[in-house]
């Protein structure tokens, strides 16, 4: 079995948290490590799936707020010294007394820490020293610290990933980005290793931005330890522009990848590039130990008519919204504006002003990001408005300017907005609106952002219902586009599988089990990728491939299958299998999963931007705009909401044969709304699991995060009746509260949420998953989404 392990690194070997907004602080003291990686991931949509976090006593998830430079430099720990504790250490002491840390994964492949970066990088040494100096001063009045931008968050937060790969190869993805380096098998000789380091700089080279050229990616640094290679490596990166469709633009414009041995250039064009929509793939043949790469859109000939590069491309502008880990009565939010889509999970800001003076460098968390298309460079204003009467934006900071020349130069613009609590207000998370518009014109875009929770009271930390409650996931409100989205058309085509397996034995079950395939020895099974699902069989947890056999999608035990290439297939055991067949099969779990209608209605109304497209795939193509006049539904979301409500009513009227959630999910997948579907899957799976568990949720909570008895009771207190107990029929509520909070820590890693939930349920004394198999069905759906998208929305005749 190919195993991959993922390591996230902050500059200097400081590991970062699993998902942005995750406040799950397992331990403060860290040791940076390099990890062996083997195996090349085949899943383009979710490369992180193959890079599992390693969590041991010295290497665990961290919010990044605890930097122990003494440990980093190999000195004695600050915890054993006699001085006062820092705020970060106080938080850790409370965490340590509240619960015992569970070692989830162990690895014998951890390498010794490499600290040469401090010796060779003067700037890195300086920042590490400043960070230590600030931590030493952090033993201060806790009442004052509550007013600070972010609880002594002053460590360096430049995202770096370092991975060590063997002869087997693998993929290295920069955290929180669409930047991946694929190293093929055989890149280095047997017994040798390749260490790959990736780092992205927000600010692209200024020299590459003028009337004829425009950078559309961050500046990427790739460092290699071994130049004795036999195979090239492949760089895959998302870019922030597309060439316009008119003939002039198509002929005169090109996307190029430029490289240089130095950060400041000079840059030369690389060949061997392939571009598809907003993604570029570059084959790197001539390798060096340090390479700097950036993608730019350029006009080919300088003698062209009076046209600039902006006239030939659709340029994407991205806004990253950063803020402190917790909000305070007065805090600063940072808006980063750039011409590419990369936004690091954390950002060091060194020019925060407080009381008229610059403070020490502060690390801000990414609260959310929003992208929009800009037809031409122009002056823009960013305006921010609080949607909550308890908070206000300081009058002098309600509007900030972005100059046209800054956009032309490709500069990264940093704007600061100061928020404060009103005199009569109470501390709580709130929503604010962001609007971008030219000085005299219509708004270019607007969106909403939700802040994280207020800073917790240190004295009460240990009384909260466990880490899962105090470390609530930071969520951004929906970022709404102003223009209507054009959804692709679902095409019913013959599936063209690339992976197959031959069964090595006959498996026929006396008692049929949902989602588990039955087969005869020698059957050829079409495999939906090479990804594996862990789930319980008749009695034991096993690893399974997702496959198609005789027109049915299900699981086949990995040990019972020999994987073969497409060319080795002699005969198939099933008839023609189409994209429609795949869609109908993988959505079957939604006929049985439980859902909260109001949640489904809200999510779909917020995330579907074309009511007509939704109406057409649901069979309501006869509806017109006039049908909405009587309801006074002016907004797109209101029209989408009406369509969903109509579907609910129609399914309820014929509830014996129609299932609302099933039909809605099928429709959304026909519109290629996979992100929304994944969110709905998680919502339904968590709710159904809570209902199935009932009072058994306590056992699950203990297995997942080792909640104490007191922490479990804290989840149940809000749902207790007059007798002081939670009624059996109401026990699903604390179970749901716990699972929802736990699942939020995964961010958008829906596959990991479902797999970890499945594994935890399978390990219970009396697993509900032995009878209830629909969570397994949801995992099958998640594993099939990439293949469905590639097949049903491709332009070729055969998928």
UniProtKB/TrEMBL annotation:
InterPro entries attached to this UniProt entry: DEATH_SH3BP4, SH3_domain, SH3BP4_C, UPA_SH3BP4, ZU5_dom
Q: Where is the ZU5 domain?
A: 159-296
Q: What is its main location?
A: cytoplasm
User: Got a GO cellular component term for this one?
Assistant: mitochondrion
Q: Known Pfam families for this protein? A: DEATH_SH3BP4 (PF24094), SH3BP4_C (PF23637), UPA_SH3BP4 (PF23640)
Identify the residues that the record assigns to the SH3 domain, covering every copy: 496-566
According to its UniProt entry, one GO biological process term is: positive regulation of transcription by RNA polymerase II
Q: Where in the cell is it found?
A: Cytoplasm; Nucleus
Which of UniProt's keywords are assigned here? Activator, Cytoplasm, Nucleus, Phosphoprotein, SH3 domain, Transcription, Transcription regulation
What quaternary arrangement does the UniProt entry report? Interacts with FASLG.
Name of the protein in its database record? Metastasis-associated in colon cancer protein 1
**Organism of this sequence:** Ursus maritimus (Polar bear)
Primary gene name = MACC1
